[in-house]
Structure formats: C-alpha cells, structure tokens
Design a protein that fits this description.
The chain is α+β, with helices and mostly antiparallel strands. The chain contains three helices and six strands.
Amino acid sequence: MVGVLPQNRDAVRRYIEETGLPFDILIDERREMAKAYGVWHRIGLDAWNIARPAVFLIDQDASIRYSFIGDSQRQYPTQEEIVAAADR
C-alpha cells in the first residue's frame, strides 16, 4: 500500500511525523499524478490547487479495480468499503 500526497515535501514530512503513518508516501509536488487520475482541481470551495480525496486499488497488471473520488475534502470511503473492494 502506498499513499500519494500532492503537496510539497516539507508539508508531507510534517504530516508523516505527526501521524506516524504505517505505509510509504509518494510525493506529487507538481500534481502530475493527481491530474492524470482526474482528482486535481485548481479552485474548489475549500482550497486552491488541491486534489480531491481519492482511493484507487490498482492490481499488478495496472488495472483499476476500485476507485473512490470524494466530492469534498472531508469525504472518504469507509475502511470496510475499501477492504471489501480489495477482497473482491
């Protein structure tokens, strides 16, 4: 499992130190991955130049098996929903 954060390195480093995340984080400072996956938006109701919360389960042949893209910065799938999708 890998998280991708479209933010600058220093902000990501602080976030990791504060939360003690148990998985690796990739940094997408230029928002290239966020744009490629269609989750970046220049101007939103709660921020500028930000990615929507999103979860993608991608298998070994690079097929997207599950996707969730939030409508707001506080919308996320439940852990149960993600685990059920991974089990499928």
